[in-house]
Amino acid sequence: MLSRARALQYEESPTINNQIARKQNRRSILHFAALCWCFALEGWNDGSVGPLLPVIQAYYSVGFSVVSLLFVSNCCGFLIGAGANVWLNERLGFGKVMILGSLFLLATFVIQSPAPPFPALIISFLFAGFGMSLQGAQANGFVGSLKKNKSSKLMMLHASYGLGAFCSPLVATQFSQARHWSYHYIISAGIAVSNVIILCAVFRFKRQEDLLLEIGQEPSEEAVLNTTSTSANLYQQILNIRAVYLLAVFALIYVGVEVTIGGWIVTFIIRERDGGPAAGYISSGFFGGLTLGRLALMYINKKIGEHRVVFIYVLLSIGLEVTVWFVPSIIENAVAVSFVGVLLGPLWPILVGHGARVIPAYLFTACMGLITGIGMAGSAALPFITGVLASKYGIKSLQPFLVAMMCTMVGLWALVPKARRSIA
């Protein structure tokens, strides 16, 4: 009888294991889908800036320098989020920090919806930067910590951002021609509410290590050995890694270039190429290219090598940006900008994946928080610098500035180590 019962147990165990595996797979898909929706909302937020920026200038009667204060406020929010992320992650954990970030984004759109006084609009951009900094850091750290299909999932995660940024200008351009232009943010607030609900339902305020266990991923040996690290000790270890500095500065310039193109290209086309209000669709073309590049170029990235392919993509982008600079054609400029989006699209997921290879696993989420926060600050800093330059030299200064920043990216990436080095 005993041997029969044992035989039945062995017969049933594969079935039980299969059920557990299917449950873990479903949970993993839910986790990833929730993070993709979160990134789509961030892309929606960034994509709406370009078409609405000329309207904001006209509505509040402000010039390039003053309207660029929105980007300064956004930058401050990102930097505060980058600095606070490590401490918040240690105290609250992944699930709670994600939800905190989503609440700040919701507050952003609630403030923006009634077209508030300009100082309140500035504060809303601060909230947006802080919320997006927390969400971006946590989501990149979570997906970058996965052991299965990490590179593909990073590409798809950031393609979700591009998809949101592609759809947003299509809607924002319509509102930019309407009397109540700020009602665009009511739609944004609705999406933000769904984001809060989804994050609460899927992650249930849990820590990252608990969520990874739910999908069958055990913590790494490094993580187990370093569970007693304090936040002060974590900061010290992070700041001892040279790659973190290089990746952070590269991220700052890359994200800054990306958002500067999406945010200011509409103004450039209207002012320098005599484009009409429909120029807002060019911003959609850029972000559509961004999405396509993150999905379509995955095979090329693996074939050539992710570290090497970055040089190719950036150099080709420089060549296309030069044509936008010197060729006075709306059609050519629109096509070139879309292809720049295709080429720049894969760079951020590649950066995150490369960071997972050169940064110790137990520090990766915390490091990505800092890198992402500083990188996202570029989405505010570089557009602000563009505004300052435009107020002095005109919006024609956009293209030489972008070319200079892309050249800097090439030099920085050459300094990024190809493999992990020991912490000093």
UniProtKB/TrEMBL annotation:
Can you list the GO cellular component terms from the UniProt entry? endomembrane system; membrane
PROSITE patterns tied to this protein: MFS
Q: How is the protein disposed in the membrane?
A: Multi-pass membrane protein
According to the record, the segments passing through the membrane are 28-45, 57-80, 92-111, 117-134, 155-175, 181-203, 243-266, 278-297, 309-328, 334-352, 359-385, 397-416
Recorded GO MF terms: transmembrane transporter activity
What's in the keyword line of the UniProt record?
A: Membrane, Transmembrane, Transmembrane helix, Transport
Subcellular location(s) of the protein: Endomembrane system
Residue limits of the Major facilitator superfamily (MFS) profile domain? Answer: 31-423
InterPro entries xref list: MFS, MFS_dom, MFS_trans_sf, MFS_Transporter
What protein family does this chain belong to?
Belongs to the major facilitator superfamily.
Q: What is this protein called?
A: MFS general substrate transporter
Source organism per entry reads Lentinula detonsa
